[in-house]
Amino acid sequence: MSELDARLRDEIDDQVAEALDAYLAEQQPRRVRRGWPVVVTVALGVVTTWLAPGAAWAAWLAIAAINVAWLVVVSE
User: Fold this and answer.
1) For residue range 4-61, what is the model confidence (pLDDT) as tens digits?
2) Where are the domains of the chain?
């Protein structure tokens, strides 16, 4: 009876290993999302607003365009 149990356990182990291998093979590697360019550009916008308040609107417009482009590229 113990030999049957050992064979049954081996069969179960093999099936679980095969199922896990198949599952992991189907998983796609996740891309790491990096948000540091967004943070850096916002920080540069704050510095620009502090240094040249009259030109701040142009800096923030450029920052918004860069951040939107970055987020579109990263999300694809």
Assistant:
1) 677 887 788 888 888 888 887 777 666 666 777 778 888 888 888 888 888 788 888 8
2) 2-75
In angstroms, the CA 21 to CA 63 distance is 45
- Helix intervals (H) in 1-76: 2-26, 36-51, 56-75
In the block, tokens 């030109």 appear at 55
Instruction: Round to the nearest angstrom and report the end-to-end CA distance of the chain.
Output: 56
Torsion angle, CA of 22/25/26/31, rounded to 10 degrees? 150
Tokens standing for residue 14: 């093999």
Instruction: Classify residue 10 as exposed, middle or buried by CB count within 10 Å of its CB (0-12, 13-18, 19+).
Output: exposed
The one-letter code for the residue type at 53 is P
